[in-house]
Amino acid sequence: MKIKLTVVFVACLFFQTTFAQEDDYMQKITQKACECVSDLSGTENISSEELGLCMLGEAVKYKEQLLRDHNINMMNIDMEGEELGRLIGLRMISECPDVMMKMVAMGEDDTEEFEETLYVAEGKIKAISKEEFIVFSLKTDDGRTSKFYWLTFIQSDTDLQNNYEKLKGKKVTIEYDIYEFYDTKLQDYRNYNIIESINTVE
User: Fold this and answer.
1) Contact (CB, 8 A) for 68 and 159
2) What's residue 35's pLDDT?
3) What would the 3-class secondary structure string for the chain be?
4) Which pLDDT does position 107 carry in this prediction?
5) Cβ–Cβ contacts within 10 Å for residue 93, how many?
6) Contact 139/124 with Cβ under 8 angstroms?
7) What is the CA radius of gyration of the chain?
8) Strands 155-156 and 119-130
9) CA pair distance 168, 170, nearest whole angstrom
10) Cβ proximity of 196 and 176 under 8 Å
11) Residue 79 has what pLDDT?
């Protein structure tokens, strides 16, 4: 179960997500997961398997609610474990931020690397909006326009920090990953395209 904690922390600052009105069962799952991880935090490293077990320990008691409210089938956890990890992991940041920060630090020290498959989009930058973070609107060749969010360091062939506005109207290739976060305005979860790299196309 891959849980990308660093990006989740940054996204929390962006979306200002609070869970004061969270369902009682989700609060219980989160609290138990935090307690479990806290008990493990004295070890030199916490594996993704251990973290997953901490999340599953209480979640299995609420399989009907998770299927009803979040479309997560606990009987198919091998396929949907990553989605459950995102769902609980985001809430754990609010419930036990100190514990989660320790896990991020341990993850940064971990020498084990894995290949991550990224999505790729190519098209012309139609607009660049300045919100809490920079958002690029990309129109692809098929006429569709999608938003891509600058939340973390981006690899680029340009001086992005100083010249990102000059990308408007240019054709670019964007490598990105998709994260699901809770939108308080919609009161539902939605996908966000988080940029990993952006390069101009000649």
Assistant:
1) no
2) 87
3) CCCCHHHHHHHHHHHCCCCCCCCHHHHHHHHHHHHHHHHHCCCCCCCHHHHHHHHHHHHHHHHHHHHHHHCCCHHHHHHHHHHHHHHHHHHHHHHCHHHHHHHHHHHHHCCCCCCCCCEEEEEEEEEEEECCCEEEEEEECCCCEEEEEECCCCEECCCHHHHHHHHCCCEEEEEEEEEEEEECCCCEEEEEEEEEEEEECC
4) 53
5) 21
6) yes
7) 19
8) unpaired
9) 6
10) yes
11) 78
The one-letter amino acid code at 198 reads I
- What pLDDT score does 103 carry? 65
Task: Quick: pLDDT tens for 140-174.
Answer: 988 999 999 998 889 999 898 889 999 999 999 99
Q: Say if residues 121 and 199 touch (Cβ distance below 8 Å).
A: no
In the predicted model, residues of the chain with pLDDT beneath 70 are 1-23, 41-46, 102-116
What letter represents residue 176's amino acid?
Y
The dihedral of CA 69, 75, 80, 83: what is its sign? positive
**CB neighbour list of residue 151: distance below 8 Å, 6 or more residues apart:** 7, 10, 11, 14, 133, 194, 195
Which pLDDT belongs to residue 143? 92
Query: Among 61, 54, 1, which residue's Cα sits nearest to residue 26?
Result: 61
pLDDT in tens, 62-77: 989 888 888 888 888 7
All domains in the chain, ordered by first residue: 5-109 (no CATH), 119-200 (2.40.50.140)
